[in-house]
Design brief:
alpha+beta; 4 helices; glycoprotein
Length: 211
């Protein structure tokens, strides 16, 4: 009866999250590859019971439930496992962090994951939901092949390299400007000398004709 009541309360809480904007809630987003293994952590400090739940295609499924040993309190006993070959739980020595381990991820493993824990009261406390996105390695490989070359080059350029490139361009512009000024000065000086000599020569010719 207690489990039925808990599941009704939990389902109502999940439905509120699903029906509202996900951006309003804190959700951890994880992107993983097909066939990989992943661990999802849950805080078990001062808790004695834990349950992992999965929401996929509007369906909520309980994956695993476990509780600490009444003898030592530092041992986790699994009371339910939906798929022993695909799911398991790991805990640290003090059973303060419990991880849901999923091996060989498939498309059906995508969706929202919820970790619920209980203390001395019957109330279940939930950690921040985790949204799992499954990516296909072949699709990612194809996307990387068809990615434009200029994007790859831009991504490969570091800040230091960009600074060096812009510095080199600035230096080239400055050298060009300085060279232009110097060349203009030389041309002006030579033109002035040529004009002065021509004027002097004309003056001498005028003096000779006057005599």
């Amino acid at each position: 009866m207690e489990k039925v009541l808990f599941f009704c309360v939990f389902s109502s809480w999940i439905m509120r999250i699903i029906s509202s904007d996900v951006s309003e809630h804190e959700v951890t987003l994880l992107s993983v590859q097909l066939n990989e293994n992943i661990s999802l952590n849950c805080n078990m400090t001062d808790r004695y019971e834990i349950g992992w739940f999965h929401q996929h295609s509007q369906q909520i499924t309980q994956l695993i439930s476990a509780k600490t040993s009444k003898v030592s309190g530092k041992r986790l006993l699994v009371t339910y496992n939906q798929n022993w070959s695909h799911l398991k739980v790991d805990a640290d020595t003090e059973v303060t962090t419990v991880s849901l381990v999923i091996t060989g991820l498939t498309e059906s493993d995508s969706g929202l994951y919820f970790c619920g824990t209980k203390s001395v009261t019957s109330e279940m406390h939930f950690d921040k939901p985790i949204r799992l996105e499954i990516e296909d390695k072949l699709t990612d490989k194809w996307d990387s092949v068809t990615e434009p070359a200029d994007v790859e080059i831009t991504d490969g350029v570091t800040t230091k390299e960009r600074a060096l490139m812009f510095g080199g361009v600035g230096l080239a512009v400055f050298v060009f400007f300085l060279t232009t000024v110097i060349a203009g000065g030389i041309i002006y000086h030579r033109g002035w000398q040529k004009g002065w000599k021509e004027a002097k020569r004309t003056s001498l010719m005028g003096q000779k004709s006057a005599k």
